[in-house]
Amino acid sequence: MRSPSLLVAYALSTSVCGLALPLEARQDTDDATCTAEALTPDTWKSLDIDTFMNDWTAYNITPTEKNNIQTLSASFGAPNFFCGLDSFCNAGQPCLPIDLPAWYLMVAIQNWNNYMNSLNTAITFASSIMGLKLPSIVNDFYPKPKDDITPLKNIVRMFSTVLSVVPFTGQVATVASGASSGLSFLSTQMTPPEAPDLYMSWSNVASSLGEVVTQYQASVSDSIQRTIDAQVNTTGGINEIVAGGNFLGVTQNFTQADLQETVLSVIETFSIGLTLQAQKIFIYRDSYSGDTECRTPYLGGWTEYCVMDAGGGGPVYYFLLKSDGDSNAEPQLDAADLMVNKYGLTQSQFMEIPTHCYDQNNKQQLAFPFDNALPLSATTPCVFNLLVCDASDRADINKGIVDWCRNDQGLDI
């Protein structure tokens, strides 16, 4: 049973309607002093809701086999608080029916439930966004696709990117603001589809998207039910999830268009890179320390790019190439033209920046240093990614590009 002194302390610190009694919270609906403070994490911290919820559950909750969140709400006088997938539990107004400070806790749980349902909806939105965009990218860059090349986990990463902008409360994240705090939540509370040994079906995009939707929505469903049934004050219970107050706020609706505005550019850029990777298109990097300026491009189109080395080492050249099946390297004129003139990518974005990814990740080819989701800026190194081959030294000048890259540098081209 709670101690009277502890209850009084909570009552005084939060301007509640009356004392929070063990096993039953007061329902003082006519008390004019029952006014909530701003729904923010700062309020949660200033009122020390973490301590309140942990002490309350320790003294007043008898765990059950299922639906322990409802057991918690019933202890505050709200037995009809049922959360779940496609269910929307409502904490009501302060003291109607739940007294302060318990009301803050139940608002946070309400928002968690809304967030989980929003994730479930966002998975469908993500499939629609990619279903509208990917077929045209395949048609442009990979008209004769193979379906056993690109691991399906890359498509899972695009789904996770869409989910990363769904907020706990407030507005959808933007490119400027970065991914919401939901990204870390996704990595700890849910298991994204792993899709082991599965590949993207470029010839039937809809089937691959449907596979990921099914698996991801099952993960959401499992996560929400597991939390509802867990003892509230144990690992994985609702106390742990809402601790700190990140779910205390005002929720806002969002549309597919809201998500698409934030994620379309990065998903489009990442997808183009995947289609080129599948065809073993690569970047060849060469430098000439004796030159003082970039020469006039001789390959034509947008397949050659030059920048002066910032350290004074002379010009550095980048070429977008593909093996012709033998030992010759062919410039990828059509792909480069599409990227520049249709999709708005810069030469630096698809030839120079992938080499930064390669250099920054200890010369690892096709590195993906982002955990489960992409960053929201399409120009971040490693978003658009291709194999990188550095030119041989001048002692090997008689060796062809493809032979050098394939046999000496080990590229699968």
TrEMBL record:
Keyword Signal: yes
Keyword Membrane (UniProt): no
Residues making up the signal peptide according to the UniProt record: 1-20
Domain DUF7872: from-to ranges: 193-413
Keywords tagged on the record: Signal
InterPro entries in alphabetical order: DUF7872
Pfam families: DUF7872
PANTHER family registered for this protein in UniProt: LYSM DOMAIN-CONTAINING PROTEIN
Protein name, entry field: DUF7872 domain-containing protein
